[in-house]
Structures are given as structure tokens and as C-alpha cells.
Amino acid sequence: xxxxxxxxxxxxxxxARWVEAQEIPRTVFSAETANPAxxxxxxxxxGHSSSRNISRVCLAMPTRVRRWLRGAWIGxxxxxxxxxxxxxxxxxxxxxxxxxxxxLHFQSTLIGQGVLPFPALxxxxxxxxxxxxxxxxxxxxxxxxxxPWRGGEFYVDGLSWQGYGLSKTTGLAAFPNGEAYRVGxxxxxxxxxxxxxxxxxxxxxxxxxxxxxxxGRGRRLIFTVGHFAATDxxxxxxxxxxxxxxxxxxxxxxxxxxxxxANSLGLTNGVAAELDLGLWAxxxxxxxxxxxxxxxxxxxxxxxxxxxxxxxxxxxSFGGHSGAVRLIAWKEHAHxxxxxxxxxxxxxxxxxxxLQYRSKYGFGINAEQEIRKDLGAFxxxxxxxxxxxxxxxxxxxxxxxxxxxxxxDAWRRPGDTVGVAGVVDGISAVHRxxxxxxGLGITVGDGALDYRSERVGEAYYNWKMTKHFxxxxxxxxxxxxxxxxxxxxxxxxxxxxHWEF
Length: 501
Known about the structure:
501 residues; mainly beta; Porin; 2 domains; 16-stranded antiparallel barrel; 3-stranded antiparallel β-sheet
């Protein structure tokens, strides 16, 4: 007969063990921390019909009651996040390690962000408000990772979110809040953010013993299929990849020139394969695209609506410090407009011309380098052909970013992090003409354009308050927001509270 006994492991984590009457252990439920990445969410359509009905009921309530319900909801989520059920990320158990059947993880992130008043000769529909404003965003994730057999993994992420980005997440191509949805919610909404199956096949070497004879990781082949973010697999970077714990700006989370496949929440359906040979790795995937630009619904005309991506990674060691370079290429086919065709019809330029299935493509470089044990650098370069409208992500055809990330070892705060980074973005000539003549992109479009490259700098300090809580102060300076020299510069401040178990 099996019975469950709760104990504490050597690191103080709560674990449950199934044992026979004679105390023979069978299965271990373990708890460790992680923070699954989430792709950039940008919503243009409101949620499902159920959320709209809830909103109607809430709007009929008195203001005081609505505020109380909102506070009660957030408080309940915070309380749930503090339950003593710790977590582990979706990584696979290498051969030779103890097999974990189930991992649970909870995280929550609250960001308050404001922009000071700044000079602007004019403003348009997609302009950052020059009068200054303050907005906030909130997210809560509960994830479950079930491993029924070695190498097999079923992963589910339930996401609750609410809040708004500055100016309804418009006004900057490199938007300053990676947790902001394209159109926010006054009251919490909930979705299944990820639901996928992953199978890892190990071959050659012994990854259970760490690096193989060639100095790289163990060899493996990984297949992923289901509902997830393409950026969960592609364009990863150790120092700039997570707006919940690292840099907040979109430019330092993903390659802005990659119009990566995603609905307005940053998610898609697809299949991907990864071949990891240790020092070398190759990835390829094919995904669905949105039915309309930056929309919530996916296009099911799969013969004509799709996005493919391929990535080649090389890991190395330079002077005893690890580094990696990743080359990525993509091609997208969607029911999108042509900038040149839009310019030929000035009266209807906002319609992006006659929509039809067209292609766009691009390339990118992603690099990271450890300089010291506590200091690392990163860099991204990106280019797209810039002939068709931005479909999923943001209005960028050229991008170059560079930054540093420093741990607090030097001042005896190893859990703290300081980050400094900058990005320069640009668009193609026909894209400039489109915006100058009143065209609108996903996040930019002031009605006119005195073109200059958009430049954004960011600096943050992430303070580890306790084992599971972090507080961040963040500052960003945006020069020529939305490529417009007639507006800005804008000073943007933010604070972030993040906790995970």
C-alpha cells in the first residue's frame, strides 16, 4: 500500500514522497524555482465572449465595489502564489538524474510605468502621449509540468493578466514594457498561455555527467508540438530575454526585426525540432500566423498562412569564459498589405492597400559573452525586407542592440543585477513614406513623419529582497520615438515587483 509523506530536502524545499508500508520510495514530487519565458504580448482584439460578459457586469457595479473586487482578485492571486508549492522549469531530466513526475510553478509580476511630459510638434493616433501618464500591468502564471516517461513532457501554463501599456501600447517601435498587452484589460482576464507536448531523445555522450568529451553539452533531439511562443525556442539570450527579471524593453527581449509568429498575446500553434550536439545546435519550426494584423485569432488557411524559422547556434569558450552566437532566418506568409500599393491610393492609405497573401523575410544575429563570472554582454542585429506591413510584432526593419549585465558580487549582493543597454532601430525607405503619408503601423504612426532612427537606452537595478521576491527600478530614454524627430525625447520610469515559487 502506498502512502504520502511530506518532508524537507537539504535546501529547505517541501517535497512529498510516495512510500510502501516498508518505506521503499517510489515517486518524488520536487519543488524548485523557475520563470518560463513569455513572448511579447500585444493584443488588438478583446478577449472571448465570456470575458466581455464579465466586463458588462463589472461596469454596472459602483466604482467603489469594482475597485474592491479588483484588489480582492489581485490579493487572492498573490496569496495563491505564496503557497508552499515550489517549482521547476520545463527542462528535461538528463539520464542518470532522479526522475520527477510533476513540477508546479507560480509567478507574478506587477509593473508600474510612467512617462514624463515631453515636447511634441504634433501627435497622431498611434503617438505616445506627450502630456505624461502612468500605467500598470499585472500578470500571474500557474504552470504544471508532467513527465509520464523519461524525455516526455506535457506542459500547461494558465495566465491571468490585466492592465495597460503607455498610450495603449503605442508610440514606440521599441516599446518600454515587455509585459504590456496591445490593448489592456481593466479587469483580469485568463487564458491558457501554453499547452504543448515535448519529447527529448538522448543519444551519444553522457549528458548526465555534464559536458561531453568535446566540451559541449550532451547530444539530444527535441520535438515540441502544441500551443506556445516561438520565442520559447528561438532567439534566446542569457542576459536579455525576460521582461519579468531582466530588461523590460521589447528590444532587449527579442530581435525587433523578426516579425515572429504570434497572436496578440505573443502565442501561436506550431511544431519545432531542435538538434543539440553540445557545442553546436540547430533549430527549425513552422507556426501559424494571425488572421489579421496583431489579432487574437489565427489564420487556418494553412496552405497560404504560415511562418518558418531556422536557427544555428555555436557555443564556445574564450579565455575560460563561455559565449554563444546564434544565426536566425525567417520567412512569413500572411494576408498582409503592401506599403508601395498603399502609397498608390493615398485616400485609403490606412487600409494598407489591397490585402492578399504576401511574403516577408529576414535575418538576425544573437550573441552573448561572459566577460567575468559576474559580468556578461549581449548583442542583437536584425534585418527584414520591409516591403509589407508589420503583421505580428512591431514596426522595425533594421535593429542593432548592445548591453551589459552585472551581478552584485562586488558589493556582496550576488542576487542583485544591474543592466545597461541601448538599441537603434530603423525602417525601409518605402516604410518611411507610408508613415509620412499618414499610414499606421502596429505601434507607430503620428500622421506625419520627420524621420530619424529611433534610439532607446535602458538601465535597471534588480534587487533580490528575499529568496522569492525581487524589486526593480528601471529608467529608459527614448530619442525620436516612433522614428519622429518632431517628438521627444521621452523619459520613462518604472518599478517592478516580481515573485516566484
